[in-house]
Amino acid sequence: MFCRRLWLKPGTGFWTASQQGAHNLASFHQASLLPQRKLRGLLFPFSELEPHLACSVDRGHFQLFQPSVEDITKAEKLFSPSSSHKIDYHTSAVRMEHAPSQNQPEVCFIGRSNVGKSSLIRALFSLAPDVEIRVSKTPGHTKKMNFFKVGKAFTMVDMPGYGYRAPKDFVEMVEHYLGSRKNLVRTFLLVDGSVGLQEADMIALEMCEEFSRPYVIVVTKIDKCRQGVLLTNLLQLQDAITQTVRCFPQPFLVSSLHFSGIYLLRCFIAHVTGSIQLGDTCRS
Ligand SMILES: Nc1nc2c(ncn2[C@@H]2O[C@H](COP(=O)(O)OP(=O)(O)O)[C@@H](O)[C@H]2O)c(=O)[nH]1
Ligand SMILES: [Mg+2]
């Protein structure tokens, strides 16, 4: 179905969350001790960019999902392990036949090699620092689908990236997964905010459209580039999103390094997996 393939540079090497320990902003509680402006930037990263947008730009779609602090706190509990709520790496699969059974809602993360999939999952799971998530220093490391269980609530899947040295059957693997996984409730398609939409991202976008399942764009590494560049890339992305049918209109901006957007994304995942009920203030 998708015969175009794009190859990036090779690489090896990884480190684990447990080796790094929990980040000092892993929990919303810790972040809430920061000054208001800084906290707002971490919670809703788009708010920092908003003043720089021209008046003519419609910002409505950039902030549709605006949960309350209570909702964010509720969601965070799901990402905090306890004796009755285990968060752990579950299994890996190179073929769909080896994927685990489908008895809880699932979300998956797809995107080019090196876009930040594993880092994002590690940031989302930073309250469970013992979960082993391999994060490559260079592209091309994740060649399997890695499944992580969040208690009995949902599963998260780190998908192999497209790019150099992607497994030969990579496209088939992802396509097969998107086409057949019944419990998949949301696909998160990651786009590098510092480089903007690439041809490979457009192919992935077409693929998501073709499978006609709901998906969301996550803009990664927003700490890495100047605001002007990020804004330009965001507006280009917004144009592309308006051409789609199944993409959630709001792109989620994140920095897995600085924790911007992580609390909001946790809340969105908790929401789409049906794990929490949101209060009235949320417009999603
Ligand atoms: N500055 C910055 N670097 C990041 C961020 N997320 C990931 N990276 C870096 O990008 C590289 C690839 O990340 P990784 O999570 O392995 O990408 P994957 O191949 O999509 O799983 C690694 O060197 C990460 O440290 C981020 O939010 N900010
Ligand atoms: Mg990875």
UniProtKB/TrEMBL annotation:
GO terms for molecular function: GTP binding; metal ion binding. This is GTP-binding protein 8. The keyword Ligase does not apply. The keyword Cytoplasm does not apply. SUPFAM superfamilies: P-loop containing nucleoside triphosphate hydrolases (SSF52540). Residues 103-275 form the EngB-type G domain. It comes from Oncorhynchus kisutch. PANTHER family: GTP-BINDING PROTEIN 8. GO terms for cellular component: mitochondrion. Pfam families: MMR_HSR1. Keywords: GTP-binding, Magnesium, Metal-binding, Nucleotide-binding. Belongs to the TRAFAC class TrmE-Era-EngA-EngB-Septin-like GTPase superfamily. EngB GTPase family. NCBIfam families: GTPase_YsxC (TIGR03598). Its cofactor is Mg(2+). It comes from the Eukaryota.
